[in-house]
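Thread: sanity check for a docking pose with flavin-adenine dinucleotide

Original post by kr_44:
Hi all, I'm comparing my docking run against an independent structure prediction. Below are the sequence and the ligand SMILES. Could someone generate the full complex and paste the structure tokens? I mainly care about where the ligand ends up relative to the chain.
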Amino acid sequence: MGVGSVLIVGGGIAGLTAAAALGRTGVRCEVVDLTGGAEGSGLGVQNRGIDALHAIGALDEVVAIGAAYDQAPLRFFDAAGDLVSAPPVPPRPDGKPSYLIVYRPRLAEILRRCAERAGATVRIGVSIDRLDQHADRVDVGFTDGTRGSYDLVVGADGLRSTVRRMVFGDEVRPLSTGTVSLRWLPVGAPRGEAGFYYGQDTEMVVVPMHDDMTYVSVQHPDDSLLSDAEGRALLRKKFEQFSSPYLTALARGLTDDQSVLVRRYEWLMVDGPWHRGRVVLIGDAAHATTAHLGSGGVMALEDAVVLAEEIASGEPLEVLLDRFHSRRFPRCHTVVETSVRLSGMQRDGASADEMGAVRWPALQLLSRPY
Ligand SMILES: Cc1cc2nc3c(=O)[nH]c(=O)nc-3n(C[C@H](O)[C@H](O)[C@H](O)COP(=O)(O)OP(=O)(O)OC[C@H]3O[C@@H](n4cnc5c(N)ncnc54)[C@H](O)[C@@H]3O)c2cc1C
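Reply from moderator J.T.:
Ran it for you. Here is the predicted complex with flavin-adenine dinucleotide included:
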């Protein structure tokens, strides 16, 4: 018997994309999400993440509201703002953008619309508190007192997945890289060249976005959580390493009313199978990492689309979930391992060239079809 009904726990990038992809193949999907809110920052989508957005019919809408680049902004500048290197990144031959950056809450709205257009229902403020597996179904209890029965449950509930804990126990837990990410999204800042700027011990990613927003991101080698004011003060110190006129002009906008998002960089990889019986993990619930390849969200998009492809194959569940895992594990492992490695190299003061020698082959590998 095929998979006709799916519960997706977590309505983030992975969960909503899975609902859209599965719904398009005629599978009845329900999504529950505890909060329903995406964090107020930018998400870069490159490589095959673009194809995954296309597969669920979201690409045109994301291109319409996001900032689309014909070439991924893999350009490396020194502290003075002079170009040091720029690997040749040819534009895609199919006319699609090579790189998109989009405000996460806007992306979440588009993904939700795609999921609902494909027939999925989305309930916000609800999670699961009970999960009983049987040979032919999974019975689920929800935190609002309701219940349901499904052919398959998808755990798309992120780094601290409740589904993973319920089904896999505590054997896999997030590990800290000992670093934090600082992200700032000024509006109306001066425009300049997108790329990676190298200061004394800082790699600063700067990407002009849509709606006059600019994405600014750095890593700091200490994972103590900082208040908004401390995050701002730290980012100001990072800017002091740069004499680039563009970055100096940007820094002038980092006034006390600006919000700097501080987030611990943690990582996680479920090494064995991502399913147990009729429950499968996708996205950060199965593999999470830092932003050094800008590909964690891309893997979440790809996971969702590949899972729907495998379910549409009509193979027995155990077979298709094994195939899903063997298609996904190598790509996701590359992303997790390379990102954590790059995070460590950056903490230890690696140069743009040293980082590029690790980053570039991984990105090329990820440009192959999923
Ligand atoms: C600083 C930083 C920058 C990044 N930048 C990029 C980037 O530019 N490009 C890129 O591709 N990747 C990037 N990533 C990685 C990317 O953010 C993640 O890989 C991606 O968000 C994973 O999507 P997800 O849907 O699996 O998980 P999440 O986005 O975490 O979504 C999980 C969802 O589950 C819900 N949830 C949680 N618990 C429960 C529960 N018990 N019940 C119901 N719902 C629940 C949450 O509310 C949430 O909506 C970055 C990561 C970090 C840390």
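The chain has a mean pLDDT of 95. Hope that helps with the comparison, let us know if your pose agrees.
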